[in-house]
Structure formats: structure tokens, C-alpha cells
């Protein structure tokens, strides 16, 4: 009898937050007469250096490299799994020169943080790509394989702290799903939430946590340098360029892609939305973007317009159901 596999179509300082928030608002106020082709501002709803920031800047570079947009900017609005940025973004007004990067992490944060707004309060433009999570340990960890960790995890889940991003985000969901698949009650998982991959790395190297979970690119340099050892990747099938077995290959029947996509503010016209879709579609064919996909080990998953809206509706419902089921 085939196994049931759960695959989700796949989360600073106050002064910095205030400044970046005003940057987004000021940008929207200074776009009188501008069009998406002349000026485009992309909000990365996270601190510099994270996954949304990376995706935003790769998108920006692809737009610039082929002169698809004359002036493409990125602003950062960190906090609460992206929901602070989301809250600001929906208040911008119907400005077609504004986009926000989003993804699976924000869906979890919307539910856990009881956000008064969600992604369907925006204008969905396009899903761009999927990347993957890894289970990671320090090089001196006694866990040489995922099986080693799971054996210890089963014996005493509370004594095996697992660290990752915000509560309800992709990292947290993956920890709960992996635990359940391994026969551990998700509520028993000793999950410690951090602001980003940098803090997870520090906690790993100081042995504050035993295992870290985050996007592959958060740890890629340390993996390649031998500072960290990857135990498993959350893809359903092996990923070219990532020399790490999947959870599925190791008997943990869970796969969790982490998608990245773009939304516009609410209220823009159908013509403005189509122009943004055309810009993103054109960008997706550029050499710069194809190189970014390969370099970052992302999988192209372009989905635009109403199809993307339907995907968000379905994916948010799945994430909500999993959060409730796992008691997160």
C-alpha cells in the first residue's frame, strides 16, 4: 500500500524597522506619473541577508540586467515572519509600482500571529520559484545521519532542541511534520525560534541547539566549508547540486518546498496587474534569472495571475490545517 505523502506547495532594531517602513511608504508617494516599467520598488518583508531579501535582489538584478525596468529598488521591512511588512504593504494604496516578495513562511506567520490581513488582501502577481529546507548539525555533532538524530529524538524529544525561523514558519512546520512521521508527538518537539539563519548558525556552533532547520542557502557556505553537516533536504526528489539525501529517501515521508512569489497592493486595475505579470514573465526568461535559479539551487515554478491567486488560497488552507493539526 503506497505511503501517504504530505507535500506542501511550499517564515532589527526598532529604528531600522521604522526607517524601512517609511522607505516603502515614501516610495509609494513619490511615484506620481511613474509606471512599473520606469520605476519598481520591491519590499522584502525581512532583514537583509534572508531568503526573501535574496530573492528580491536576484529579481532586481534580472530586471536591471535586461533593462526590463529602468529603476528597480529593494526595501527591507523586517519582523513577525513578514506580517509587519504585509500590514504596511496593504496600506500603500493602488500603486502598480510596488511589489512585495512573499512565500510559505508568511502563510504560517499570518496564522500564528493572527494577522488581521492575509495574502488575499493583496493582488497576487506571480509565484517565481521553490527552494528547500535542510536539517543541519555542526561538524563535530555525534549525529552522522538523520537516522542517528531521529533515534536520539525519539528517546527524549525535550532534550534535543531544534532551532529554526519564526513560529509557524516553514522551519517550524518541517520540524513538526518530520517529528510526526518519525513517531514523535509534534507538541513534544523542543523548537526554538530565531529571527533568521544567522542566529540559527550561532546557536548551532555554540551547541545551544542540536539541529538547525533553515533554507539551504542560509547554510550553503558553511556546508561547503565543512563547518556544518547537512543531514537531509526537504525536497521530494534529489536536487541537482545538493549532495544531501532527502527526508523521503531516509524514511521520513515528508517533502516541503518553500515557494517565493510576488504580490502587488490591493486595488490596482486589471491592466496594471497584467503589466506586472508581463514584467515578471519577461524577467523569468532572462539569462540572469536562469543563472540565479542554478546558483541558488532554486526550482523554477512560475505561476501567474488568477492561477497564482487560486494557489495561495489552497496553500494557505493547507498550512492552516497543518498548524492546527500539529498544535503549533
Automatic annotation (TrEMBL):
Record carries keyword Signal: yes
Signal peptide, first to last residue: 1-23
Keywords (A to Z) from UniProt: Signal
CDD domains registered for this protein in UniProt: PBP2_Bug_TTT
Protein origin, superkingdom: Bacteria
Pfam families hit by this protein: TctC
Family matches, as PANTHER family: TRICARBOXYLATE-BINDING PROTEIN, UPF0065 PROTEIN YFLP
Family under the similarity heading: Belongs to the UPF0065 (bug) family.
Designated name of the protein: Tricarboxylic transport membrane protein
Record organism: Actinosynnema mirum (strain ATCC 29888 / DSM 43827 / JCM 3225 / NBRC 14064 / NCIMB 13271 / NRRL B-12336 / IMRU 3971 / 101)
